[in-house]
Amino acid sequence: MEIWINPACSKCRSAVSLLDAEGADYTVRRYLEDVPGEEEIREVLTRLGLEPWDITRTQEAAAKELGLKDWARDEASRARWVAALAEHPKLIQRPIITADDGTAVVGRTDEAVRDALSR
């Protein structure tokens, strides 16, 4: 199990605390420092069962600068979204937990973190 975190994020710290409390075996990835590439982002999206716009933090300054709210949300635009996430990792929703069964969850709630633990 791996958790992508930004240590400055309270949701990330809560998720790590819950994983620790449950005695989970996991690795931490500080994704702003160890930035995922486009292929890895596509793989995580597949594991999540989501599209890139579903995990994009659209209120971030970079999102506003890029004009993401006006970008199409369709298959033809998917590569553009993935490229933006790779170029601006701060736009990636957090924390993301990759579960042992090959799936992943966005662990913004205790319930989502427990879901990842149960997989």
Question: What can you tell me about this protein's structure?
Answer:
By secondary structure, this protein is of the alpha+beta class. 39% of the residues lie in helices and 12% in strands. It has helices at residues 10-21, 38-48, 61-66, 78-87, 110-117; strands at residues 2-5, 27-30, 96-98, 104-106. Helix 1 links the parallel strand 1 and strand 2 (27-30). Helix 1 packs across helix 5. The chain is globular.
List its salient traits.
119 residues, alpha+beta, single chain
Overall average residue pLDDT: 96
Low-pLDDT regions: none
What order do the helices and strands follow?
EHEHHHEEH
How many β strands by DSSP?
4
Nearest-angstrom radius of gyration?
14 Å
- What's the number of helices? 5
Structural class: alpha+beta
What coarse outline follows from CA principal-axis ratios?
globular
Distance between the termini: 10 Å
Helix content: 25-40%
Major sheet size, sense and barrel closure: 4 strands, mixed
Spatial order of strands in the largest sheet: 2-1-3-4
